[in-house]
Amino acid sequence: CREVDWFSLASVIFLLLFAPFIVYYFIMACDQYACSLTAPVLDVATGRARLSDIWAKTPSVTKKAAQLYTLWVTFQVLLYVALPDFCHKFLPGYVGGIQEGAVTPAGVVNKYEINGLQAWLITHLLWFANSHFLSWFSPTIVFDNWIPLLWCANILGYAVSTFAMIKGYFFPTNAKDCKFTGNFFYNYMMGIEFNPRIGKWFDFKLFFNGRPGIIAWTLINLSFAAKQRELYGQVTNAMVLVNVLQAIYVLDFFWNEAWYLKTIDICHDHFGWYLGWGDCVWLPYLYTLQGLYLVYHPVQLATAHAVGVLLLGLLGYYIFRMANHQKDLFRRTDGRCLIWGRKPKVIECTYTSADGQKHRSKLLVSGFWGVARHLNYTGDLMGSLAYCLACGGGHLLPYFYLVYMAILLTHRCVRDEHRCANKYGGSWERYTAAVPHRLLPGIF
């Protein structure tokens, strides 16, 4: 049991209190104030509106939204648990089916059924079949129930996080992989169990990180585009750009889902409110703000602006993907590969694992990894900037995503580097001397 420092505790309590309010504020501002972030504050400050008036105008949960949301999550659980992956059998280069994760701190290697791409494809095929042939529901259904669905997502987010905490205390999947602190709030937020599971296959982390929220992301955007066409008779080029660039990002996630098993979320984070509520509420509601904004403000960009946004988004994606590919190739071949046509430069290092064993390792200082220590995050940020720029410069709201991603990825840099400095010691200092910048070559 370890103690929590006051700064971590303050951050945890701040997020628990304010993250749900931030989501509500953004969605309410679009619903009642045409996406203005300052108007609600000014209205309350000058007495034109009371908080109770704003709350009274907010749609509450409805039976239709509850049924929709239950159906949605149940459908995704079935696609995850009941349908083994067949995409890897006919898609060259795609890694799916049963895959192994990284070794957990307790020395366990979990197996996962990787079938997210299949779930995404089936869900979207059904969506398009409904839009063009079946007409079971209107393509604007998500937008039309957006705030009632927010309450349903919150109920699931809190229920899952609370269940995961109780499970961690009373019936953990692996007791050795639990991490307790002396603080209830920290345990609730950051999670106790490393890999909570129900049965052999239902993995909380992989399901909530990758299914209801990320599969919904592209559907939500499509629903916003349908609403824009219903309201204005056309879909603007800005809406098309947001749909296309974010769909590339989502498809990349599912194409590389097996690789995702080796990332910080799966390898280091425990499953608590941060992931449970975050994946159910924060991700689908705040990552889709650009599309929501464009329903209220249909921006039609000049051709040069639109082309610039597209190129920035594609370049950002290229850097993000190729940087990750280089690191992956380097790891898989133990450095016996070519990066940018040359033998990779490396820094040899040793580290001691928890069981006292000494290990050798190599740090890559070639290709994108010689330009900056986290250039994959830089590519990610360029993509984020492109989504925001697609919305023009009329409002602050669409730019929240960029600010959030900048904070998130900078925080990840610091966390990554703190862990690496502890692990590699002097070798890490040699590495940071060889590659002095974190995200922006020459600046930071």
Quick structural gist:
With 444 residues, the protein is mainly α.
Please characterize this protein's 3D structure:
- Pfam families: ERG4_ERG24 (PF01222).
- GO terms for molecular function: 7-dehydrocholesterol reductase activity; cholesterol-5,6-oxide hydrolase activity; Delta14-sterol reductase activity.
- Pathway: Steroid biosynthesis; cholesterol biosynthesis.
- The protein is mostly helical and 444 residues long.
- It has 2 domains: 240 residues, no CATH class; 136 residues, no CATH class.
- Helix content is 63%, strand content 7%.
- The strands form 3 sheets. It has a two-stranded antiparallel sheet.
- Helix 12 packs parallel to helix 17.
- The model has no long low-confidence stretch (mean pLDDT 93).
Helices and strands in order:
Layout lengths: L5 H28 L5 H7 L5 H6 L6 H19 L5 H4 L6 E7 L5 E6 L1 H19 L6 H4 L1 H25 L13 H7 L6 E2 L3 E2 H7 L1 H21 L4 H19 L1 H4 L3 H4 L5 H14 L2 H8 L6 H30 L13 E7 L5 E7 L3 H4 L3 H15 L10 H25 L1 H9 L10
Antiparallel strand pairs: 1-2, 3-4, 5-6
Helix pairs in contact: 1-9, 1-15, 4-8, 8-15, 10-11, 10-15, 11-12, 11-15, 11-16, 12-17, 17-19, 19-20, 20-21
- The portion of residues assigned to helices is 55-70%
Structural class: mainly alpha
Strand content: 5-15%
What is the molecular shape?
globular
Strands, count: 6
C-alpha-based Rg, rounded: 23 Å
The number of distinct helices, counting runs of at least 4 residues, comes to: 21
H/E element order: HHHHHEEHHHHEEHHHHHHHHEEHHHH
- Please tell me the total number of domains: 2
CA-CA gap between termini: 36 Å
Low-pLDDT parts are none
Q: Quick check: average pLDDT? A: 93
Question: Strands across the major sheet, in which order?
Answer: 1-2
For the report, how would you describe the main beta sheet?
A: 2 strands, antiparallel
Organism: Leptonychotes weddellii (Weddell seal)
Pfam families: ERG4_ERG24
Subcellular location: Endoplasmic reticulum membrane
Transmembrane segments: 6-27, 146-166, 231-251, 271-289, 301-320, 384-409
